Description:
Layout: E1 12-16, E2 19-22, H1 30-43, E3 60-65, E4 68-72, E5 75-79, H2 94-106, E6 116-122, E7 128-131, E8 143-149, E9 152-156, E10 166-170, E11 175-178, E12 187-189, E13 204-210
Antiparallel strand pairs: 1-2, 2-11, 3-6, 4-5, 6-13, 7-12, 8-11, 8-13, 9-10, 9-12
The structure holds N-[(3-hydroxypyridin-2-yl)carbonyl]glycine and fe (iii) ion.
Amino acid sequence: MPPELFPETRVALPLDPGAVLLGGFALDAAEELLAGIAAIAAAAPFRRMETPGGRAMSVAMTNAGAAGWTTSRRGYRYTAADPLGGLPWPPLPLAFVALAGRAAARAGFASFVPDACLVNRYEPGARMAPHQDRDEADLAAPIVSVSLGVAAVFLWGGQARGDRPRRVPLHHGDVVVWGGPARLTFHGVDTLKPGDHPLTGPLRYNLTFRKAL
Ligand code: MD6
Ligand code: FE
């Protein structure tokens, strides 16, 4: 369906100072982004990483860019190489960098050039426990997060772990940008419900762009 018939899906919804949901911002780029994800995964396959506590994450992950986020028994870190195989992470496709920069600018963060893209893949039942993104060297840069495929419920918390989160639906093509006073907000993703999307089947993908180095 042509998204321009549904202007409400292109609305910017402020979540907090420094954080905004750009509804449908990535719709036009979605197929290109999914093709890029397939190319990234061909070089650096999705895998369920281990938490420092020794449990396998329910979300499968891979990365593109100069730095990739990993977790293992040794903790959370950014690495230049994929620990599976030891090669550098695949390059960030230019279309990814361009989209992230446009979204950041739309949210008021000029000149955002990411060097890391974490690719998350959710199957039904997968979830992301509430956390802060604080492993990046440059916390002055925002984060740009793109949702593709089956919709999920984003849990948008506060500055303290105990703050009760708001439940924000994230649909295919939605982009969340946050930075500044919202940069360390606690957030997570509720358990993915069974669904079916024309482009991804039962899966949800999420791209999070950061300046990690
Ligand atoms: C997800 N996202 O949407 C998980 N982190 O699949 C995140 O954990 C996240 O969306 C930082 C910034 C944006 C995000
Ligand atoms: Fe996060």
